[in-house]
Structures are given as structure tokens and as C-alpha cells.
Amino acid sequence: MSSGGNWKELFNAAVAGDLDVVRYHVQHGVDIDYAHPEFLSTPLVACILAGQEAAAHLLLDSGAQVDLASEFDGMNPLQAARHAGLAGLEARLLAMGATAPKAPAATAVQRPPWWRRLWTPQRSA
User: Fold this and answer.
1) What is the pTM of this model?
2) Which Pfam families does this entry report, sorted A to Z (predicted)?
């Protein structure tokens, strides 16, 4: 299976916290560290920013790289966990050897992640 195989479905499932779908794609060889050219974001950082801690743990259990930066979000998993206020996940990432890059001299304007601007969950009536 190519690195982008069913990656979009994996990505969306991670952001939505659908562990069964994430697990399915992991078991079928979808590259969990891939960042699709249309997204430029990793499933791990995206699900952390969405507050999906269980999905993040599943991806980490499956071998996701702890220091792989998400280009679009401008942060790595540790920075995302700190941003999302997920202290337990932050502690796990630190225990796994994750590091945060040094802050740039001038910080960029913070804006919501691209997928949060585009993705709105369907709510049942």
C-alpha cells in the first residue's frame, strides 16, 4: 500500500477520535507519519490539537514519531499537547524522548489549525 493509501480516512478518523477506524488503517499499513501534500499535517499533531488524546495514544502505541513536526500547524506533538492542555500526553511524549524546538525570536500570529477551519463535525439533532 502506498504511503498515502487510505491516509485521508485515517487522518479524519484520528481527528474525530474514531479509534476503530484508526486501528484498522494502522493494521493495514497506512503510514501514520505521512503528511499528505494537500494537508501538510500529521495525524498525530492533528488529533492532539482536536483534543483526541486516546487517538494520539493509539498512534504513539503504533510507532508514530514523537518529534515529527506538522508543517501546516507549525508544531510537533509535544508543542501540540502543551497547546491543547493535555498534560498526560505531554508527560508521555517527554518520557518517550520528545523535545520542543526553541521558540523563534518573533512568534507568528496564532490561528486555528487549517483542519479546524475547514472541518466541522456533524451534530445529530
Assistant:
1) 0.76
2) Ank_4
C-alpha 22/C-alpha 17 separation (Å) is: 8
Task: Name beta bridge partners: 47.
Answer: none
99 vs 12: CA distance, rounded Å: 26
Sign of the CA dihedral 110, 97, 53, 12? positive
Task: Give the pLDDT score at 2.
Answer: 42
Residue of 40, 84, 81, 39 whose CA lies nearest to 59: 81
pLDDT (tens digit, 9 = 90+) per residue, 37-71?
777 889 999 999 999 999 999 999 999 999 988 88
Which three three-digit cell numbers place residue 85?
A: 492542555
Does the pLDDT at position 105 exceed 50? no
Residue 72, SS3 per DSSP: coil
Give the chain's domains with CATH numbers.
7-118 (1.25.40.20)
Nearest to 12 by CA among 2, 30, 98, 81: 30
* Amino acid residing at 59: L
